[in-house]
Amino acid sequence: QVQLVESGGGLVQAGGSLRLSCAASTSIVTFVAMGWYRQAPGSQRELVASITRDSRTNYADSVKGRFTISRDNAKNTMYLQMNSLKPEDTAVYSCNMWRVAGNYWGQGTQVTVSS
To answer: What is the rounded distance in angstroms from the CA atom of residue 27 to the CA atom of residue 79?
Structure first.
């Protein structure tokens, strides 16, 4: 069973930065695609950023130019660097990794941006 463990969430003032990490219990080179999602209270879950096996990236319009998704295959870890944070970025952020054998989710980490 693949486990994904997130870390790095917390409380930050508007304009600040956070880096989220998602550590997998197995090699991440087997995953076709990986991504970060977020869900704010009363809202649907949305895809924030994704990265493919060959490191192609894609971002939601709301975070382009502020967030950067990356991966470190040697550490089996995916990251989300979040800069210039805004109060509307407040949400529970969850990581996801997909391969033919299965689709896996982390437990979620709270990010709160104060104004």
So the answer is: 15
